[in-house]
Amino acid sequence: MIKTVVKIEGMMCHNCEAHMVKAFEETFSLKKASASHENSQAELISENELDADKLRETVEAAGYKYVSSESEPYEKKGFGLFR
């Protein structure tokens, strides 16, 4: 799995976050998506690396400014069994 952090300028509220998450979910096959106007970014979890040009297009089509994106391997953290 891959975690992609997309830096975005222009999100001002929770509605902006929801709008951006919906745009990403409609464009990409994602396992999880979240956005934060306070941190000016979105975090996307996917099976494969996402295309940076398509990320830019998605952000700009939603009415915001794409700043950058970075991807890294992602391992789901959960509760383990303790013995």
CATH class: Alpha Beta
Which structural class best describes the helix and strand composition?
A: alpha+beta
Ends: how far apart? 28 Å
How would you sum up the global shape? globular
Question: What is the overall pLDDT average?
Answer: 93
What is the share of helical residues? 25-40%
User: How many beta-strand segments?
Assistant: 4
**What oligomeric assembly is this protein in?**
single chain
Main sheet summary: 4 strands, antiparallel
Separate helix tally: 2
Q: What's the number of domains?
A: 1
Sheet-strand content, in percent, reads: 25-35%
Strand order of the largest sheet: 2-3-1-4
Task: Return the CATH architecture.
Answer: 2-Layer Sandwich
- Poorly predicted regions: none
CATH topology: Alpha-Beta Plaits
Explained architecture:
The structure is a single chain. This protein has 83 residues and is α+β, with helices and mostly antiparallel strands. The protein has a single domain (2-73), classed as Alpha-Beta Plaits, CATH 3.30.70. 29% of the residues lie in helices and 34% in strands. The chain is built from two helices and four strands; from the N terminus they run βαββαβ. The chain has helices spanning 14-27, 52-61, and strands at residues 2-9, 32-36, 41-46, 65-73. The chain has a four-stranded antiparallel sheet, covered by helices on one side. Helix 1 (14-27) crosses helix 2. The N and C termini lie far apart (28 Å).
What attributes does this structure have?
alpha+beta, Alpha-Beta Plaits, 83 residues
